[in-house]
Amino acid sequence: xVQLVESGGGLVQAGGSLRLSCAASGxxxxxxxxxxxxxxxxxxxxxxxxxxxxxxxxxxADSVKGRFSISRDNAKSTIYLQMNSLKPEDTAVYYCNAAxxxxxxxxxxxxxx
Length: 113
Prior knowledge:
By secondary structure, the protein is mainly β.
């Protein structure tokens, strides 16, 4: 079993920045897992934000390219999402995902205009 705990969400003004963290634990967690961030806005489906694989190759949704940056620290079993130039449309619950299967409980991000 793998447990994922997100943190770092909050309320920020448009143009501001936030850094999300996701700490992974569990005896089946592997640093070889592809890790990712997803988000779900009110009334919308969950969507991919960014992923990072074991070779630190990253992938981003077009809507966040150039503004968000995903990274991982395998020694700490933690991934991060640095979010800059935030927009009101980035408001959502952000979820951490491991291996396309395990999910965290989510952290709320609200961007005010």
